[in-house]
């Protein structure tokens, strides 16, 4: 069988073309490639249509979106790989400015968004421009997050203009992708660590409950309590000079986690409403992270009915204040000054919200 991919001998990655192999080599410094008969995996999400090229990528997609159904289309349109080296583009034909961005008008393009979600928003009566702008700016593959963005920004002056983005040159795209993947990996590690802690606490609670039930059954049957190892006599107390150790104050992440746990406990009878509030908070935080210089993402009207229904009534204002927002203009707005934007705190907030949304054990204790 003719080769259908190029395999990196250093890390095992499968690549679709010589160009991909060159990009991979530039990003990783790997140089050992060989033609392979193993096709590049193509798992397509049934819910949003996103293609995933590895099991790890599909697992990350499931973690972020909750989508679990994938169609294996690896065998579709498999073609022998071309080993022809792509021709280099002359530098004088690229018209690149000092920032690494092409200045030609044709380099401004409409950003790619989820076509399925775009069609759903259009069927709800939103124009193509509004729907595209909502999906692009909310940065989410969840329909509700895009609708929330439209509600919050329906009076924006450019709401009916099609969003445009510039095409970045190869190196910049690769570096941005590498940084995004590294940040995602760190978020997944933090999320899994928090999940394990929650699971450990939940198992301990269940174990204690089983022991209590067992003791209660023995009592009803008239059986003596279960014998345990004899307790050693207490060691005589020796007077020692007490040393007062400083109490470690709760970290910002712990305060955020406790705030979210409190919201879930107070509204545990309406899990869907709580999840919607967490997703809305995640949208607010994500918008600031992606556009820290845009004031409209750092200013929230407290009297907005949608905000009150989704976040305010459940106690979400306290969480936003932990993220750096503060009440202003007679308590009419929540505002985060640009010089107070702390990416570390906002990233931590995003991790805590992801854990609260996706971890089934969150808030059960």
From TrEMBL:
Q: What protein does this entry describe? A: UBA domain-containing protein
Highest taxon, organism lineage: Eukaryota
Indicate, by first and last residue, each region the UniProt record lists as having compositional bias (Basic and acidic residues).
209-230
Question: The organism's lineage?
Answer: Eukaryota, Viridiplantae, Streptophyta, Embryophyta, Tracheophyta
Provide an example Pfam family for this protein.
UBA_7
Q: Which InterPro entries match?
A: PUB-like_dom_sf, PUB_domain, UBA, UBA-like_sf, Znf-C2H2_OTU1-like_C, Znf_C2H2_type
User: Where is region (Disordered) located?
Assistant: 208-234
User: Mind telling me which residue stretches traverse the membrane in this protein?
Assistant: none
Organism, as annotated: Kalanchoe fedtschenkoi
Q: Which residues form the UBA domain?
A: 112-153
């Amino acid at each position: 069988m003719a080769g259908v991919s190029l395999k990196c001998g250093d890390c095992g990655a499968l690549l679709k073309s010589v160009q991909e192999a060159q990009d991979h080599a530039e990003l990783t410094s790997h140089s050992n490639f060989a033609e392979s008969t193993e096709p590049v995996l193509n798992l397509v999400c049934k819910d949003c249509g996103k293609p995933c090229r590895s099991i790890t990528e599909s697992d990350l997609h499931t973690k972020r979106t909750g989508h679990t159904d994938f169609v294996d289309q690896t065998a579709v349109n498999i073609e022998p790989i071309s080993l022809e080296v792509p021709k280099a583009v002359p530098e004088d034909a690229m018209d690149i400015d000092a920032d690494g961005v092409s200045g030609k008008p044709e380099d401004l393009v409409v950003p790619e968004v989820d076509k399925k979600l775009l069609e759903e928003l259009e069927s709800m009566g939103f124009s193509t421009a509004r729907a595209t702008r909502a999906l692009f700016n909310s940065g989410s593959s969840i329909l509700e997050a895009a609708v929330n963005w439209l509600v919050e920004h329906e009076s924006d002056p450019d709401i009916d203009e099609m969003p445009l983005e510039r095409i970045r040159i190869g190196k910049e795209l690769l570096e941005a992708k590498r940084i995004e993947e590294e940040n995602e990996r760190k978020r997944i590690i933090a999320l899994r660590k928090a999940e394990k802690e929650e699971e450990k606490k939940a198992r301990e609670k269940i174990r204690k409950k089983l022991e209590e039930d067992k003791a209660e059954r023995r009592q009803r049957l008239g059986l003596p309590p279960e014998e345990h190892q004899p307790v050693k006599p207490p060691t005589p107390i020796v007077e020692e000079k007490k040393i007062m150790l400083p109490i470690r104050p709760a970290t910002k992440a712990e305060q955020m986690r406790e705030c979210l746990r409190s919201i879930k406990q107070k509204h545990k009878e309406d899990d869907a409403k709580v999840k919607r509030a967490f997703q809305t908070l995640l949208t607010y935080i994500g918008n600031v992270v992606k556009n820290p210089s845009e004031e409209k993402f750092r200013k929230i009207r407290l009297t907005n009915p949608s905000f009150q229904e989704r976040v305010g009534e459940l106690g979400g204002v306290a969480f936003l204040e932990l993220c750096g927002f503060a009440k202003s203009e007679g308590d009419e707005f929540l505002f985060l000054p640009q010089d107070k934007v702390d990416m570390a705190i906002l990233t931590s907030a995003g991790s805590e919200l992801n854990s609260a949304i996706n971890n089934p054990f969150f808030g059960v204790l």
